[in-house]
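input
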Amino acid sequence: EAEDAAMADVGLRFGSRVRVTRAAAGIEYGPGPGPKRKEALGGAMRAYGMCVAETPGGGAGVEFFVADDRGRVLRGARYGAAPLPRAFSVCDALDAGSAAAPPPRLATTSLDLNPATTLLSAAGRAESSSAPRLLLAAHEGGAVALYRSDRSLALRRWDGFATGSVVAVRWSLARPSLFFALDDACVVFAFDLLAADPAAPAHFEAFGAKEKIVSLELAAAGAPGRDEPGQHLMCLGYDDGRVDVHAIAPEFARVTPEEVRALEAMLA
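output
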């Protein structure tokens, strides 16, 4: 009887045993569950990357964005239903206009959420948790798409700038209107949404020779201040295990309130 009692006890007394049981299951994302979801996703699907963020409105909720092998971005939530829309695409196959062509089936290779949860926070003003997020998605065919989290279709798309596939895309940690894209030819491109020609890269630089760059990450070092201006870094990872760290030029790491207001007006 003592042994049976210990097995039933979940650890409330000395010497008792604890049973480990599975208390979690897979989390659904994208369209709702059931046959319609499978049909909407086109059968089996493979995930290529994921971004995680707090659910709009605060609290302990978490939502995530998943890159799939059909060129889309799907959205899910850790608890409850994810906010709408739950799927993002670069174009609409039913649109009779310029987006009438079927969506590309090339995989989404990289995702990144704008680090400024709201555009106001970049200027040091009060945040509004209900503001939409900005999401970048890179595609295998050499394209980058810009999304707002409250709209299912891309706001803008960059095509033809890379010689091959886009390996990684990252928002600038300092300027909410600037992002970097790495292609499989080891070239890093910088795009500015507020440039006179936002479709053309504001700057590009080639790295590597025989080795291939397989990852790109950004970091901020040092606390900005009067005596410590801080430094913004770009880390490049090569397929042979080497990692290079580069300092980002000041013109790509400086933001003004006017720039933030212009970006807010453009995306309104």
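quick obs: Confidence is low (pLDDT under 50) at residues 1-7, 38-42, 118-129.
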